[in-house]
């Protein structure tokens, strides 16, 4: 049973890795640059030369979509993992301890949670300028409190569990208890939420790109590829649906991976 | 109980204060203000006109003076006037809120309508066709930007089938079509969450014990398992409801739905501080109230939780 | 298993909701001829969601949708013609005497007299933020149908400002109620809100051509995709502002007609003279030479533009004859070599003293053509060896204010008042706040000074052409193309055409058959 699951995880990881490698090597495999413009070939449908068609600048969509995997996936992963890390650490602390500091942190999380992403993104772009990095920073700033709440709600009831009290009495330090006893209990939900968030993050970056606050041109970032070609949805639908399909496949892969990881680490869940 | 609610409502004060202050600060950190935006928009006007306008709006004052002035006004029940349209902020907000409320509540309802039964099926029939369907829905709903789904819907329902009219004013129009893309995106999340929560609960020993005692499966499901997952589900729902009621600028723009989401994004783009601030108050109040409501409902549904315990 | 029952309830509820949806999809009750018009150019974000011409930019809506009219108007060649006025006379450099028509009445039946116009202009000066700074009016006297205006500065283009939408004549005594002003136009507003306007025929209309439609409904549709779908659904009779990408869908379809007109909205890129590299004219010239405008217009704008040589289109009297350099990549490379960029680095970018030539191209996305121009320029200049970092953000004003750009590309209406003076004064004259390139040339400045003191129209046009040529010779601004404004209408619509100045949309001639 376990070996079957291990195989599945390996397969999924392999697929993701393969995608990333293909993304890095796209230019060499395809003989098309994802960035070079050929205006005479603009908006051509899928053909033998251009399998997935070309965009408004006559760039090969397959090359661009492959090249975009790197930027899109890594940015989204970074945002998801960073938010999860920051949010979970604060959540662990808030769930385990009590007092003024915890209240303050929770209020802070509340403030950020009720903050619309746009307000943040515009302010960040206004101060630091647009670009992928700043868009990612803005999204991270409003995503982390979700993990704080999640983790805190998971940790709070554990505080009174016997095995935690036992650990406290046998002289474990707070750090040891948090990371050795409590963390394994909450890491599953955190991972699943992060995997779920991946799609949201990609679409959020797309939304910001649409306002010129995301990836800067000519970067091949899926979200911005989609939003910048949405006007061609009727006349050249491939310009929108190719990056769209790439996002769906990526999100699917990561969610399947999250599922498998969860099943692997937590075999008792199998029914 | 009353005391508890009062105490929770008091939390609204620091949150509203913090949110409005931070948003005010963030908007001022941007180098440009309303006057720059407005005058640059229509190929510019001369400096004297801009300076006069700035003075009229109070933008020539320092940051703290401006914030204190705004706060003082609000404490006297006056939300001020929009910098752009000069109309009172309170009437502008109130005229757009009903449309957003209608749309979002329907979206929330649709979400639960689809995700509760389907999520349950996916959990109790793990690996079945329902489970696969739930997965597929959650992949696509999670990955596709709402504008894409909205435009596809419009293409079929408005252009092909004439089911949706662009000409009907928002107030007389059914919110069903615009609610679908919002519900679709949310359903994607809820399906996964409900499935995961149920699977977790079903694997617990007490469920096995109850089944062994000979209780029927659906009885255990409805009387024990659902009650147990209600609390985390409601907490989640409170969060989504609060953020949903802030409106969705993209869906509102595409469906010509006259709501607060678009109002807020326009205001942010135009640096219309009074509108932004009013919007921030609305958002933080929603957030606090929904969380409070969720906690109260949880306490009724799941007797293991008491309000006192969750207070901190 | 009660699962079936569990599922049945939601399905029933869903049915109820969708039926509710069917019931409410009904078009507004139509009485007589109703014209449904979708536009991208109306809305609170454009500051024109009212018909009160004295409020910010709302005058555009007053004039565009046939509610109000101005004393003078532009013809198709941007020549000035009397409208509510009969004629005018320049008494001296500071005084102008306007004779008003005798037969004009407001939509409430009241006669438009000299007193009424005076009261309206006084209200304009009191309430509008820009008018007092544009018009510089000292005193006004009304005598019957004659209005005499004195300005405190020489105003050779005073009449042009009286054709600006904010100068629309309304009955100020009637006041403004719910954003509705009483004008003299062929239609009168009955409902004005953020979503659009509801107009009905003005039975008292004074003009020789009487309005032919009973009702006009204007819808604000700010999203290009939605506008396209709304037109395709057949619910609208005409639309303004469709994205180019959507036009092919209507070109192929015999049920629609597309009309377009070149406007003075130019896509221009100002070179920032504060950037050391751009202080060298050879570098500026190389940039202008390396971007192929013809290709940009024919491919990226799908032919919906007019290649620009100078700041005004060739079709305008003050735009004719300005000559710009043709696309020449080899010459551009040569110029860069002459300017000292003799080496190239690994990525193919030219370097001077080991430093690659990198330029920050600032632009915004709210005009669909600008990001296209930016990406096209980026790829074109790369061929010449110049590295361009595009910053296309709707936050661009922050960067402008900080000076964080080398080239600023924008869309700008260069002749909003039908006169060249305005553009030169605001964008080209030394030290002006909207002179984003910080261009400062004694030659141009002297010419602009002369323009400001010239009252003869032909001489003004000649001077304007000379200044335009001077800017192009200095390579201070790269003029890419002019917007060709297109309107799409159903085949049965007549009397609807785009106008080069973008002011007049709903006219008495408009009809549906």
UniProtKB/TrEMBL annotation, chain A:
<keyword id="KW-0472">Membrane</keyword>
<dbReference type="InterPro" id="IPR050366">
    <property type="entry name" value="BP-dependent_transpt_permease"/>
</dbReference>
<feature type="transmembrane region" description="Helical">
    <location>
        <begin position="71"/>
        <end position="96"/>
    </location>
</feature>
<dbReference type="InterPro" id="IPR035906">
    <property type="entry name" value="MetI-like_sf"/>
</dbReference>
<keyword id="KW-0813">Transport</keyword>
<protein>
    <submittedName>
        <fullName>ABC transporter permease</fullName>
    </submittedName>
</protein>
<keyword id="KW-1003">Cell membrane</keyword>
<feature type="transmembrane region" description="Helical">
    <location>
        <begin position="236"/>
        <end position="258"/>
    </location>
</feature>
<comment type="similarity">
    <text>Belongs to the binding-protein-dependent transport system permease family.</text>
</comment>
<dbReference type="InterPro" id="IPR000515">
    <property type="entry name" value="MetI-like"/>
</dbReference>
<feature type="domain" description="ABC transmembrane type-1">
    <location>
        <begin position="69"/>
        <end position="258"/>
    </location>
</feature>
<dbReference type="Pfam" id="PF00528">
    <property type="entry name" value="BPD_transp_1"/>
</dbReference>
<keyword id="KW-0812">Transmembrane</keyword>
<feature type="transmembrane region" description="Helical">
    <location>
        <begin position="191"/>
        <end position="216"/>
    </location>
</feature>
<keyword id="KW-1133">Transmembrane helix</keyword>
UniProtKB/TrEMBL annotation, chain B:
<dbReference type="InterPro" id="IPR000515">
    <property type="entry name" value="MetI-like"/>
</dbReference>
<feature type="transmembrane region" description="Helical">
    <location>
        <begin position="277"/>
        <end position="301"/>
    </location>
</feature>
<keyword id="KW-0812">Transmembrane</keyword>
<feature type="transmembrane region" description="Helical">
    <location>
        <begin position="12"/>
        <end position="31"/>
    </location>
</feature>
<dbReference type="Pfam" id="PF00528">
    <property type="entry name" value="BPD_transp_1"/>
</dbReference>
<dbReference type="Pfam" id="PF19300">
    <property type="entry name" value="BPD_transp_1_N"/>
</dbReference>
<protein>
    <submittedName>
        <fullName>ABC transporter permease</fullName>
    </submittedName>
</protein>
<keyword id="KW-0472">Membrane</keyword>
<keyword id="KW-0813">Transport</keyword>
<dbReference type="InterPro" id="IPR045621">
    <property type="entry name" value="BPD_transp_1_N"/>
</dbReference>
<comment type="similarity">
    <text>Belongs to the binding-protein-dependent transport system permease family.</text>
</comment>
<feature type="transmembrane region" description="Helical">
    <location>
        <begin position="136"/>
        <end position="158"/>
    </location>
</feature>
<feature type="domain" description="ABC transmembrane type-1">
    <location>
        <begin position="97"/>
        <end position="294"/>
    </location>
</feature>
<feature type="transmembrane region" description="Helical">
    <location>
        <begin position="233"/>
        <end position="257"/>
    </location>
</feature>
<keyword id="KW-1133">Transmembrane helix</keyword>
Automatic annotation (TrEMBL), chain C:
<keyword id="KW-0732">Signal</keyword>
<feature type="domain" description="Solute-binding protein family 5">
    <location>
        <begin position="80"/>
        <end position="426"/>
    </location>
</feature>
<dbReference type="Pfam" id="PF00496">
    <property type="entry name" value="SBP_bac_5"/>
</dbReference>
<dbReference type="InterPro" id="IPR000914">
    <property type="entry name" value="SBP_5_dom"/>
</dbReference>
<protein>
    <submittedName>
        <fullName>ABC transporter substrate-binding protein</fullName>
    </submittedName>
</protein>
<dbReference type="InterPro" id="IPR030678">
    <property type="entry name" value="Peptide/Ni-bd"/>
</dbReference>
<feature type="signal peptide">
    <location>
        <begin position="1"/>
        <end position="29"/>
    </location>
</feature>
<dbReference type="InterPro" id="IPR039424">
    <property type="entry name" value="SBP_5"/>
</dbReference>
């Amino acid at each position: 049973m376990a070996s079957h699951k291990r195989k599945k995880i390996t397969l999924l990881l392999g697929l993701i890795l393969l995608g990333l490698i293909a993304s890095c090597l796209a230019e060499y495999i395809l003989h098309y640059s994802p960035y070079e413009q050929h205006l005479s070939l603009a908006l051509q449908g899928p053909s033998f030369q251009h399998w997935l068609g070309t965009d408004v600048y006559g760039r090969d969509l397959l090359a661009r979509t492959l090249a975009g995997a790197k930027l899109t996936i890594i940015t989204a992963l970074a945002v998801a993992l960073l938010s999860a890390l920051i949010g979970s650490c604060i959540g662990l602390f808030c769930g385990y301890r009590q007092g003024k500091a915890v209240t303050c942190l929770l209020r802070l999380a509340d403030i950020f949670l009720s903050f619309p992403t746009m307000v943040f993104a515009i302010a960040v772009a206004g101060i630091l300028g647009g670009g992928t990095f700043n868009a990612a920073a803005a999204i991270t700033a409003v995503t982390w409190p979700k993990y704080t709440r999640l983790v805190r709600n998971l940790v709070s009831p554990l505080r009174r569990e016997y095995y935690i009290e036992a650990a406290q009495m046998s002289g474990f330090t707070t750090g040891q208890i948090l990371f050795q006893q409590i963390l394994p209990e909450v890491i599953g939900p955190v991972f699943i939420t992060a995997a779920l968030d991946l799609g949201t993050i990609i679409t959020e970056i797309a939304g910001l790109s649409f306002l010129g606050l995301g990836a800067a041109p000519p970067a091949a970032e899926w979200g911005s590829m989609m939003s910048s070609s949405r006007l061609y949805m009727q006349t050249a639908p491939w310009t929108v649906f190719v990056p769209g399909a790439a996002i769906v496949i990526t999100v699917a892969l990561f969610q399947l991976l999250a599922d498998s990881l969860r099943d692997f680490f937590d075999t008792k869940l199998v029914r | 109980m009353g005391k508890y609610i009062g105490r929770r409502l008091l939390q609204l004060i620091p949150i509203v204060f913090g949110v409005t202050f931070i948003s005010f600060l963030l908007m001022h950190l941007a180098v440009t203000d309303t006057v720059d935006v407005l005058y640059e928009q229509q190929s510019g006007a001369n400096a004297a006109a801009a300076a006069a306008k700035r003075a009229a709006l109070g933008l020539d004052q320092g940051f703290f003076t401006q914030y204190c002035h705004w706060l003082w006004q609000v404490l006297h029940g006056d939300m001020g006037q929009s910098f752009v349209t000069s109309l009172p902020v309170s009437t502008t907000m109130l005229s757009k809120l009903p449309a957003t409320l209608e749309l979002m509540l329907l979206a929330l309802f649709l979400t639960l309508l689809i995700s509760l039964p389907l999520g349950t099926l996916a959990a109790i029939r793990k690996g079945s066709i329902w489970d696969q369907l739930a997965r597929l829905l959650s992949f696509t709903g999670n990955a596709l930007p709402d504008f894409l789904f909205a435009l596809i819907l419009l293409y079929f329902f408005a252009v092909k089938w004439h089911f949706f009219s662009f000409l009907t004013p928002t107030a007389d129009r059914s919110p069903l079509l615009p609610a679908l893309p919002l519900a679709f995106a949310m359903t994607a999340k809820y399906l996964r969450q409900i499935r995961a929560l149920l699977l977790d609960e079903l694997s617990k020993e007490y469920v096995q014990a109850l089944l062994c005692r000979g209780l029927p499966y659906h009885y255990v499901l409805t009387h024990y398992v659902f009650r147990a997952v209600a609390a985390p589900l409601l907490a989640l729902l409170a969060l989504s409801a609060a953020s949903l009621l802030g409106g969705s600028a993209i869906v509102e723009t595409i469906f010509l739905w006259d709501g607060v989401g678009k109002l807020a994004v326009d205001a942010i783009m135009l640096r219309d501080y009074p509108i932004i601030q009013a919007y921030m108050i609305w958002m933080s109040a929603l957030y606090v109230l929904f969380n409070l409501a969720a906690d109260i409902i949880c306490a009724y549904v799941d007797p293991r939780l008491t309000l006192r315990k969750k207070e901190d | 298993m009660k699962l079936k029952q569990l599922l049945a309830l939601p399905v029933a509820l869903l049915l109820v909701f969708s039926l509710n949806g069917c019931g409410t999809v009904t078009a507004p009750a139509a009485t007589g001829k109703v014209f449904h018009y979708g536009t991208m150019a109306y809305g609170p974000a454009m500051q024109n969601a009212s018909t009160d011409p004295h409020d910010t930019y709302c005058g555009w809506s007053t004039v565009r949708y046939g509610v109000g009219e101005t004393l003078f108007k532009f013809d198709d060649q941007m020549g000035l013609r009397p409208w509510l006025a009969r004629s005018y006379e320049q008494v001296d450099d500071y005084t102008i005497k306007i004779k008003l028509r005798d037969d004009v009445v407001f939509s409430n039946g009241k006669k438009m007299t000299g007193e009424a116009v005076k009261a309206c202009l006084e209200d304009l000066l009191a309430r509008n933020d820009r008018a007092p700074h544009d018009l510089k009016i000292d005193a006004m006297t009304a005598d019957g149908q004659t209005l005499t205006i004195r300005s405190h500065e020489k105003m050779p283009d005073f009449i042009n400002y009286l054709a600006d939408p904010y100068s629309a004549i309304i009955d100020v005594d009637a006041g403004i109620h719910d954003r509705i002003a009483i004008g003299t136009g062929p239609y009168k507003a009955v409902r004005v809100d953020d979503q659009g306007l509801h107009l009905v025929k003005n039975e008292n209309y004074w003009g020789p051509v009487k309005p032919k439609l009973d009702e006009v409904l204007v819808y604000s549709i700010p999203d290009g995709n939605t506008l396209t779908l709304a037109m395709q659904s057949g619910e609208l009779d005409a639309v303004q502002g469709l994205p180019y990408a959507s036009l092919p869908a209507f070109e192929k379809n015999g049920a629609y007609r597309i009309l377009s007109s070149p406007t003075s909205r130019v896509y221009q890129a100002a070179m920032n003279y504060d950037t050391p590299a751009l202080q060298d004219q050879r570098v500026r010239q190389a940039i202008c030479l390396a971007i192929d405008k013809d290709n940009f217009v024919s491919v990226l704008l799908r032919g919906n533009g007019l290649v620009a040589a100078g700041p005004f289109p060739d079709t305008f009297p003050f735009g004719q004859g300005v000559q710009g350099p043709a696309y020449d990549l080899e010459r551009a490379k040569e110029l860069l070599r002459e300017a000292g960029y003799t080496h190239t680095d690994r990525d193919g970018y030219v370097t001077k003293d080991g430093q690659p030539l990198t330029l920050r191209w600032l632009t915004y996305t709210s005009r669909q053509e600008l990001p296209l121009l930016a990406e096209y320029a980026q790829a074109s200049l790369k061929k010449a060896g110049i590295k361009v970092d595009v910053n296309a953000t709707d936050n661009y004003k922050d960067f402008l204010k900080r000076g964080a750009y080398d080239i600023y590309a924008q869309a700008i209406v260069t002749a909003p008042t039908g006169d060249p003076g305005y553009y030169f004064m605001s964008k080209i004259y030394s030290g002006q706040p909207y002179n984003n390139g910080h261009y400062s040339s004694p030659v141009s400045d002297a010419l602009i000074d002369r323009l400001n003191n010239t009252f003869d129209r032909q001489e003004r046009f000649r001077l304007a052409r000379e200044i335009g040529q001077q800017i192009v010779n200095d390579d201070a601004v790269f003029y890419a193309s002019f917007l060709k404004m297109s309107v799409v209408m159903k085949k049965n619509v007549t009397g609807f055409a785009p106008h080069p100045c973008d002011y007049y949309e709903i006219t008495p001639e408009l009809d549906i058959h």
